[in-house]
Design goal:
- By secondary structure, the chain is mainly beta.
- The protein has a single domain, classed as Pnp Oxidase, Chain A (Roll).
- The chain contains one helix and eleven strands.
- The strands form two sheets. Strands 1, 2, 3, 6, 7, 8, 9, 10 and 11 form a nine-stranded antiparallel β-sheet that branches. Strands 4-5 form a two-stranded antiparallel ribbon.
- Strand 1 and strand 2 form a beta hairpin.
- The radius of gyration is 19 Å and the shape is elongated.
- 13% of the residues are buried.
């Protein structure tokens, strides 16, 4: 449930540089900022120590859409040589203004596996965020601002 509205997976649209994906099986992304409370010699908080921002993304594509992404990557000299790619995730019901998250992801891991009886081949990908997530155009973090 998001803002009192129940979403299902069909409410989510994922756009890669190769276009709107139709066989995305899973997407998961998160970010964090490692701030910590600084205490004085009396043990009381006196401020915040600014930590680093980081994030990661997991994406599971159908084989066809992975192959399209791999062809896109070939112009960069291979999958792991790709510059960070934009991934746009939007969600919302028909008639509702969709919420949109924009990620910049550099992929660091992929997994090719299959088993007898699999109906669809899926390729799980993992990567790191190279910029703060932007939700509806607003960044989660702006370096240098206090």
């Amino acid at each position: 449930m998001i803002n009192g509205i129940i979403y299902d997976f069909e409410s989510i649209k994922v756009m890669l540089p190769t276009g709107l994906t139709l066989t995305t099986e899973k997407i998961s992304y998160k970010d964090k900022k490692d701030d910590e409370v600084i205490t004085g010699s009396n043990g009381l908080p006196i401020g915040i120590g600014r930590g680093e921002y980081s994030g990661e993304c997991e994406l599971e594509l159908g084989r066809y859409e992975y192959d399209q992404l791999d062809v896109f990557a070939a112009s960069s000299g291979g999958f792991y040589n790709m510059p960070p790619i934009p991934i746009v995730v939007s969600y919302g019901h028909t008639g509702q203004v969709p919420a949109t998250d924009r990620l910049e992801v550099h992929f660091t891991e992929r997994d090719f596996s299959g088993a007898k009886g699999d109906k669809n081949l899926k390729i799980p990908l993992k990567g790191v965020l190279t910029a703060p997530i932007k939700t509806n155009g607003r960044p989660a973090y702006v370096p240098g601002l206090n």
